[in-house]
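User: Could you check the structure of this?
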Amino acid sequence: MSTFDARTVPADPTSRERLAGSGLDYRVLDDAALADHLRAEHRGFLGPEPTDKEVEEELELHRERRVIGVYDAEAVQPYPVATECSWAVPLTVPGGELPMWAISGVTVSASHRRRGIARGMLEGELRAAAGAGFAIAGLTVTEATIYGRYGFASAVPSATVTVDAKRAGWGALEPAARIQFVDREQLADDLGALHERTRRDRVGDIGVWPRRWKEVAGLVAGAEKPRHVRGVRAIDASGELVGSMAFQVEDGPDYRNHTFRILQLIAATPDARAALWRFAITYDLVSTVKARLQPVDDALPWQVRDMNGVDQRIVEHGWLRILDVPAALAARSLSGAFGVRLRVTDPLGIADGAWTLAQLGAEGPRIEPLAEGETADVTLDIGALSAAYLGAVRLETLAAAGRVAGSADKIRALSEALRTAPAPHLSIVY
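Assistant: Sure, the predicted structure tokens are below.
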């Protein structure tokens, strides 16, 4: 995990001044204000009023993050009218890791909409992150149409999977891993250990804080139906932990047709992943298996008896926003030999510029400012580059959408340089 303390980064002065002009106070919060911030955040996400126990548990995590609140002196409640928090986290990129500015908990009170508050917070976050030396920011979203205006783009899609267990069945593959039930405390430990072991193997994943696995296992105050959460682990022939799955079995239309809902599945090997999926699909009295946040290139359709029983719906999930183009490109490995003159536009003025990007040998990419008078081969907006950064979408596709312009050959060359396999995958919501 990153050792950078985001709490040391002050509130962006531009956003602070802009919101002050509307009678609002935008600031980084101290510990004394965090409880009210949490209550406002729960309200913003349409949740019930949190209990004192829930607030007490969540405060432990909030004290480790940079927490922003926007206050209206005329408000009756002491809560902020808008919330947001951020922290530093490692993002897996091709060839290594890149420190990412993670943004979460963005809410604006229903009483204060259309006053430029979200704009002030998000633009302030991006300027603060860039000023702190971060080359990229990321978030997952509840309303996907909001964040493109700030230069974010969907860069790590995921699959929502629904399996008709009786039609799909299981195929001929016989996984070697064995499945064992575990209690919920062990489940949380297994998920955390496996995630930390495997996250560097999958481009697009991030480091995760321990509380997240307790939430999945139903071990935190306010967990929904915690006693319904079950856990299993997969072990290999030597007894080593190679997979873990949290799930719930939900009532169906009758006792023979329950729904098996996968809450989290992490596997260190393809065999372990197959063993966990077979366990779910062949579970007694289950007719439907459902899972969110699955890899878009999962082998599952090829492992069942009838792939027509597997429905995969691809959805946006992980959003990225490049803040420093040369630093972001230098941080990841690129494929092949190529040379491209690149121009990037950024409406916020954070990451726009023009560079020559070339890779001729094993020493890695060379990135230099575009020489005076030279014309770019490829021009694209910062959102398009952010979307393509981990290889989830080809630049040719974005060119067809009007987001990339220039030489078709150079667009293809840069697209090939950015490609990755397997497909990027982000295993959590944050």
